[in-house]
């Protein structure tokens, strides 16, 4: 098991050493799977760097891109410039996903817990664990600060990534019998750091086996590599956009400094912004959460407004302001429900 101290040491290595270590991991994975590998390519800067490193060693390795329909137009255009890319598509659209399962907001853990507690189909044990944890600990438990979400007038869930990304990749893996290289980094999020600290770069035990050769890199390393090796990257980064995943995803949005991803979208892609705000209903969702959706808009009262008493209600943080009665209703299955900014290319002299 890798310790946090070991991770910190690796993250502090010079770039040349990191490249060498990543190349070793790439070679090991390639040999372990007899060359039956691929690079999960999103068109973003991290996977662009990973694809470049892999193909400098093994030029024939294919890239796999999942076209969810939620990517920036610039991302799709950039992916089309790359050779040997297999395009995959999900069977369900984002609109259908949010209509059936709910919006992806706050984080996967929070959205999953909220969905589990509110679902009439969840067992009492499952609901209780999502609310209070169990004898094994508190992982997956809905944090007290997010209990107001149980009263939200919209549904939430973490199913979007599973349906739109994982399932197409899983089908590809089963059909082609290839193991993937993925460009995620421990510095991306707490969950990815925890994942790296458990098995490291080799995740052969998962439904879709994958290797994360640059997991100990940082955002600065990515930009330095692109600059030093003159690797082309997607032009979307030159517009000020930093989040280049699914355009309409709300995970992590509450942590972003203003302008957040949707405020930027209003300026860079106004038609897509109007579509997700008005056609997909995100304007009302963000307004209820207290997250601004338009440039210059002041944050409203809501669970995401820091220091706002409304976020916890009159009963305080112990109950989330909802009162024990609502919690009891959810646990009994009676409650119904309707369905700091990262550095960019300019900061690194690119």
Please trace the helix and strand order, writing H or E for each element.
HHEHEHEHEHHHEHEEHEHHHH
pLDDT averaged over residues: 87
The unreliable regions are 306-329, 332-343
Q: Please tally the helical runs, counting DSSP H or I stretches of 4 or more residues.
A: 14
- The gyration radius over C-alpha positions equals 21 Å
In spatial order, strands of the major sheet run 3-2-1-5-7-6
**Main sheet properties:** 6 strands, mixed
In words, what does this structure look like?
The structure is a single chain. The chain is of the alpha/beta class. It contains 14 helices and eight strands. The protein has helices at residues 4-11, 15-32, 45-57, 73-79, 94-100, 108-118, 124-132, 159-176, 190-197, 219-228, 261-268, 270-279, 282-289, 323-331; strands spanning 37-40, 63-66, 85-88, 105-106, 179-181, 202-203, 210-211, 250-251. The strands form two sheets. It has a six-stranded mixed beta sheet with strand order 3-2-1-5-7-6. A two-stranded parallel sheet has the order 4-8. Strand 2 (63-66), helix 4 and strand 3 form a beta-alpha-beta unit. Helix 6 (108-118) packs across helix 7 (124-132) and helix 11 crosses helix 12. It starts with a helix and ends in a 19-residue tail after the last helix.
């Amino acid at each position: 098991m890798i310790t946090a101290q070991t991770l910190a040491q690796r993250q502090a290595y010079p770039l040349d050493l990191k490249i060498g270590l990543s190349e070793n991991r790439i070679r090991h994975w390639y040999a372990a799977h007899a060359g039956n590998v691929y690079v999960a390519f999103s068109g973003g800067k991290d996977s662009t760097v990973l694809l470049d490193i892999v193909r400098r060693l093994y030029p024939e390795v294919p890239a796999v891109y999942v076209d969810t329909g939620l990517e920036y137009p610039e991302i799709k255009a950039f992916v089309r410039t790359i050779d040997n890319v297999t395009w995959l598509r999900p069977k369900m659209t984002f609109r259908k996903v949010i209509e059936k399962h709910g919006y992806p907001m706050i984080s996967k853990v929070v959205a999953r817990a909220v969905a589990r507690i509110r679902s009439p189909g969840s067992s009492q044990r499952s609901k209780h664990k999502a609310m209070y944890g169990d004898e094994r600990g508190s992982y997956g438990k809905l944090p007290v600060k997010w209990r107001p979400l149980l009263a939200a007038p919209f549904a939430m869930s973490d199913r979007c990534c599973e349906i739109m990304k994982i399932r197409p990749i899983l089908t590809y893996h089963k059909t082609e019998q290839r193991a993937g290289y993925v460009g995620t980094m421990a510095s991306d999020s707490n969950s990815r750091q925890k994942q790296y600290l458990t098995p490291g770069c080799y995740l052969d035990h998962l439904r879709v086996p994958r290797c994360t050769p640059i997991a100990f890199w940082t955002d600065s390393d990515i930009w330095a590599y692109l600059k030093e090796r003159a690797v082309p990257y997607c032009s979307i980064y030159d517009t000020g956009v930093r989040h280049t995943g699914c355009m309409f995803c709300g995970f992590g949005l509450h942590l972003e400094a203003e302008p957040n991803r949707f405020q930027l979208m209003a300026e860079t892609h106004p038609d897509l912004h109007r579509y997700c705000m008005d056609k997909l209903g995100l304007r009302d969702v963000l307004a209820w959460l207290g997250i601004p959706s338009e440039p210059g808009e002041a944050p409203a009262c809501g669970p995401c407004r820091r220091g706002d008493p409304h976020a916890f209600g009159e009963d305080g943080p112990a109950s989330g302001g909802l009162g024990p009665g609502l919690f009891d209703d959810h646990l009994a299955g009676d409650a119904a429900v309707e369905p700091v900014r990262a550095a960019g290319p300019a900061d690194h002299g690119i």
